[in-house]
Design a protein that fits this description.
Blueprint: E1 2-13, H1 14-22, E2 27-29, E3 32-46, E4 49-56, H2 65-79, H3 83-86, E5 93-97, H4 112-124, E6 129-133
Parallel strand pairs: 5-6
Antiparallel strand pairs: 1-3, 2-3, 3-4
Length: 135
């Protein structure tokens, strides 16, 4: 029996995020317009095998009906307002993976120049701290 899991990805922050939510290009994370996303990763688990694919939120309607129903239900949970984000005592952490075979970015930022540019972009987007992962 196949099981489907949904994960939000490709995030936007701050005023850029608010503009994108207003234009309906992104969906707010936990009802917070200053953090939004425009892609989801769908994990498909069939027995012990797991596959995934990333799609733009605008393409959810193109999914087969049973998957679309599950993903739509998950999206509602991901975008609903939560008490945690109403408190203004949280911070935003950016993650930079420098490992060449990183599962999340495959080493896209493993040179000094690319890494420093990525860190600057995350800070400009609203990250309060940066977690740097390395092998």
């Amino acid at each position: 029996m196949k099981k489907y899991y949904t994960r939000a990805c490709n995030f936007f922050y701050g005023t850029n995020s608010k503009k994108l939510v207003k234009n309906r290009s992104t969906l707010p994370l936990c009802g917070e317009k200053s953090i939004s996303f425009n892609q989801i990763e769908i994990f498909i688990k069939d027995k012990k095998k797991v596959n995934s694919r990333v799609i733009n939120i605008k393409n959810i309607n193109k999914l087969p009906p049973p998957i679309r129903k599950k993903v739509s239900k998950d999206i509602k949970k991901i975008t609903v307002k939560r008490a945690l984000l109403r408190k203004k005592n949280h911070i935003l952490m950016g993650i930079l993976n420098l490992t060449p075979d990183s599962f999340s970015d495959g080493g896209k930022f493993n040179s000094f120049k690319k890494a420093t540019r990525r860190i600057k972009d995350m800070i400009d987007a609203g990250a309060d701290i940066i977690d740097v992962g390395d092998e």
